[in-house]
Amino acid sequence: MSKLYKEKLANGLNIFLYQDNNKHSTQVKFVTKFGGINQDFMIDNKKYHVPSGIAHLLEHYICESSSLKELIQVMAKKQIKFNASTSMYLTNYYFSTINNLEYGLKNLLKAVNTPVFSEENLKRVKAPIYQELKMHEDDIFYEFGLKEYEALFKNIQFRNTGGFREDVEKITLDDIKNCYKVFYNPHNEYLFVGGNFNKNKVLKIIKDFYKNFDEKTLEGHPLKIKESSSVNKKEILVESKASQEYVEIAYKIDVSNYSKKQLMKLDYYLCTFLDMNFGITSSLYSELVDKKIINTSLNYDSTFIEDFCIITIGSFSKKINVLAKKIKDKIKNPDFLKEEFNLFKKEDMAKVAIRADNLGNMIYQLMNNVIFYDYPYFDSVDDFKDFKFKEFQEYINKLDFTNYTTIIMKKTSD
Amino acid sequence: MKNINIKSTKKFQTIFMSFVFPFEEKEEDIAKYCILPSLLMYSNYKYKTEDSFKKAKIKNYILNYNVRSQIIGTSGYFTFNIAIPNTHSIKELNLKNIFSFIKDCIYKPNIINKGFIPTEVKREIEIVKLKVQNKEKELTGFLDLLVPRTIDDEGILKRSIYNNIDQLKKITPKNLYQFYQKNIQTKCPYIFIVGDVSKKEMTDLCLKYFDLNKELAIPQKSYYHFLKVKQEKPNIIKLNKDFKESAISLCFKFENISPKDQMNVYLLKRILSSNVTHLLFNKLRTEAGLVYSVDTINRFRYNVFEIVAYANKDNLDVIKKKVLEVLDELKNPIFMADLLKKIVADEKLLKIGEKDYQINIMDDLINDYFESWINSKKQLSLIKKIKEKDIINLVNRMKLDTCFYVMEMDNE
Fold first, then answer.
1. Which residues of B touch A137 (CB under 8 A)?
2. Are the Cβ atoms of B127 and A79 closer than 8 angstroms?
3. ipTM greater than 0.95, yes or no?
4. In this structure, is residue A106 part of a structural domain?
5. H or E stretch including B150?
6. I need a surface site. Which of A44, A329, A409, B361 has the fewest CB within 10 A?
7. Residue A32 contacts by C-beta under 8 Å, 6 or more apart in sequence?
8. Domain containing A309: what range?
9. Based on the domain organization, do A264 and A343 belong to the same domain?
10. Tens digits of residue pLDDT in A366-397
11. Residue A139 confidence (pLDDT)
12. What is the set of domains in chain B, with CATH numbers?
């Protein structure tokens, strides 16, 4: 029997408990809405701008320099698999356990609520981060990713979650204290617990923990950067060690007037649209393969960044100019196929029907629904009844695809 | 039926099925068994295009279908895997149609003139070439290729497409098809099913759709090829490469290794790098701030054990020294007893957690049958019996074979 329980504590913390007593393990995610993109905020009417990579640094700081010191080792004492990650919008602390939920939960809450700020700690935490940043630089798509954001955005400075070494070096203790003040506040935090546990016991642990802490008032808020509706550069070249050239078209579409519910629908419709026009069932894919313009599949994705929907479509190719043109032509004259729409819907419904088999997927999907779409539920098979072909066409036709940039990855001359 | 293995469990809503064809792994066939799965994964005689094939899969509620070739030691296996919802989750699911589909995928591929489709073969070859070339351009991939190429003078660990790219030139649609006929089309599969199913219904379907008069390939079960410890002093290989970072890889071999050491080596890996002991992580990162990540790679079947750290090139020698210190500390029986206790406690929980994932149940079923790996239950019982002296004995038999330094070029 699986159940979802939601509660918002008086201090602002949003709790989501998903019980599945078929499982042996329990997974916990503590999430704060603080990611690589959040470099600007306001405290007491004063604007702050912090260097890139600060959310990621603070994630490391919490894990290594709270009152518990090395959280990963504290958890390991009770065989709890703990880790943390930072993305563009979120910092996520998570663990799974079989029989030490109470210990894990208490210590996780303690760590995120009791950082010990000191210059010495900051210096120690930074050292392995420099190495981590360096590790990514050998990825053949590393420069490509940076340049793509540079081409898309004029004012948004986000380039990668970890930031750049020279920026991380500049981060001061005051910077991280200010970020902690603004973003590590229960009003900005979420706790997800999924698996085999006693709901009342877990709630009591959480509530008892916060009894020992004064309620935090909101001391600041993130600032939204006003971003131009046009792209920064129409075309950008990147040199790479990759063995073949690669081209990608990135569309920047203003969706600032969409409601969260509409964005959620758009997200689904865009997936279907991209599959239909650029996936392996699409006429374009067959044509590109037949004409030997591509060998591998087309890579495509859609994501929401601030007020924009960013759609990227690209592939390795020996004929990158032809490929770029074909992609742009298809976007101008896309296919809308009712039979395929219903077929993809059928597949998605079947995937939802078996999703409970994977606890991690369940919690991840709930987290996305809650945080990005204010939809505090799991997707259900019934939700798909709401997705209609006519509406799908309307949603896609409304999008303005005229604003795009072309990113070309050239081979470095050996 | 001996070759039909079904594990019925009501805990999951998905049904996993695997159809396994053991084959004799030969060095000259590397490119063939590398390319073949892709030609059976996206089309068949009935659905000749990727487009129509994918639509047919969805119509049948096949949520995942893939074909793999796996080499364990020097034993080869082709496996056709599918995942579908159970009939309680999707009422209109038709198991007969699904069995008919998978049978066609296995036995009736898309062919022309007694060969696979030439354009498809050519395309798959190009895809593999690109993959191989790109792997060498990244440090982790480069190291992954460098180690087997250097330490293996018996020609076993380097038996992969990455070291035999020239074989791709010899592949033709016809010889690939003959290889397929020999190893799959003329054979009967071993069938494994895990999910909320009726054993009788599934057995009946297997019998109806699969011809048991066909030959059942006998698995080779040659799962180990232990490279020998040869030199007294380790080889030192230093390379300056056009990477942005540096790494050190310490490759060890064990003296007098035997299959009985399997769990000992497994535990050694866990002791050094698991999240309950963190020995290498603590020594190199927490205490010294030398690395972001350090990991161990256990290639037990070939008697190779690696410790790899990514770090600033100026720190590589210090890292080597500290790694050897960690290994030396393991020889202390009191310390080892404590580590072992922690790992055994963790293993108990790990095995319970693994039951939440159907794929682990399937892996156990297959590995048990072919005796290619020890199932979770047996692993735990073996682990509980291991004493600190066993691991210390293993550490004493550990010989540093080669030490690789891959160093980034200086920025001008």
1. 244-245
2. no
3. no
4. yes
5. helix B139-151
6. A44
7. A90, A91, A112, A183, A184, A188, A189, A190
8. 235-411
9. yes
10. 999 999 999 999 998 888 888 999 999 999 99
11. 87
12. 4-216 (3.30.830.10), 235-408 (3.30.830.10)
